[in-house]
Give the backbone structure.
Amino acid sequence: MRFLGIDYGAKRIGIALSDEGGKLAFPREILPNDSKVFEKLEGIIRDEGVAEIVIGETDLILRETEIFREQLAQRFGIAVRRQKEELTTREARRYQGGVADARAAALILQRYLDRKT
C-alpha cells in the first residue's frame, strides 16, 4: 500500500510518496498551491496507486490545512490522516538547504509510517 505525504502551505505544497510496502517515505515534488493542484494530485494518486493520504498539521495554518484536508477526502474518497508537524520544514532545510517543502512532506509521512508500525 502506497501513502502520499503532504506539507501544506499557502503558496506551495510539498509532496512525498512511500514505497509500495508503506515503510519508507521519499520526497517527490513541490506543487504550486493554485487552481490546478487537485488535478495534479489526482494524477499522482492514480498513477502511483495511493491508498491513503497523510497531511501535516500545524497550529500556524490549522484552519486552512483542515479545509484542504476535507477537500482531499471528499474529492478522492480515500482516508486523509493528520500527522503533527513539528518543525519539519526547519529540519528539512537543515539537511539540504533551500526550498524544503517536499523533504518536509517526507518527514511528515515517515513519522506517520513509523508510528503505524
The first helix runs from residue 37 to 48. The mean pLDDT is 89. The two ends are 13 Å apart (CA to CA).
